[in-house]
Amino acid sequence: xxxxxxxxxxxxxxxxxxxxxxxxxxxxxxxxxxxxxxxxxxxxxxxxxxxxxxxxxxxxxxxxxxxxxxxxxxxxxxxxxxxxxxxxxxxxxxxxxxxxxxxxxxxxxxxxxxxxxxxxxxxxxxxxxxxxxxxxxxxxxxxxxxxxxxxxxxxxxxxxxxxxxxxxxxxxxxxxxxxxxxxxxxxxxxxxxxxxxxxxxxxxxxxxxxxxxxxxxxxxxxxxxxxxxxxxxxxxxxxxxxxxxxxxxxxxxxxxxxxxxxxxxxxxxxxxxxxxxxxxxxxxxxxxxxxxxxxxxxxxxxxxxxxxxxxxxxxxxxxxxxxxxxxxxxxxxxxxxxxxxxxxxxxxxxxxxxxxxxxxxxxxxxxxxxxxxxxxxxx
Length: 379
What we know:
Oligomer: single chain
CATH superfamily of the largest domain: Metal-dependent hydrolases
Number of strands: 18
Low-confidence stretches: none
Distance between the termini: 26 Å
Number of helices: 11
């Protein structure tokens, strides 16, 4: 390639792209915020250059479950300072805002963020603004208001509808009624659902919940241990295999810093890999050392048996496809947005959770460089 083509050149010991099949030593070149080259040639010059001989260079992570929002909100964590520098260049907000505070979220959060944010909107008009379960007040679960926002102002920003049906979210309300309203919004707008399973108490069977989901809906928290987990007796439940066959997607969303990965080891051993790897990063994780992020989630999954390449694919290309953006992000194809991350393994095994005496140890992936739209966002 011509030495005048590149604004930025990044070389790495491994360049990985599940979309294009690129996997080996090489470089990525960027000009005007777009990828203009990705491959084995490293001989060209650029105005700015980085080299990571021990690193893995890949598309920026696409975190399908996160909480970029004002830190005064229930789960809010600052996206530009605590998510973007950690390698995630695109995130899906899980229900942080609803119809009432959507204009503020659109203008002040999405509009002022370098981080690319898409939204699974809450059918509760206030979303996760207040420090209470979002479905505690059933009169605020307003189908018409949610539909109106999606149809009139959703545009490219609103991907789908969020439904977290835990007891903390619903209080004494029947989760079935909340889900009825969620489904009405989704059906009227043609949007998918980001679904948080009713885990405790065990008052609604997993089979009944899965039966309500549709192809393209995303079942998050898929590896958490509880009465209605997807594993029973060390094996994936039949209804879970049936749901996957139907087209329901399963997302990690394992935001806990506890010393296990829930039922992930059993699921992986049974041949069940998540469709997407996400972090559920939120306010609780702010200031953690090491930080909870997509690279740390990948590290923990690899430590309990998931192949690294599969985890990398499910944190880049797979969620980009879920968002309908695979021609733009999650790929190193020429012409795609120059959203990149370079990660590198720790030199030795380290604890992979944020509690003393953790049982999970392994090599920890650390982000060395994040590029968003062709510009450095973390190094």
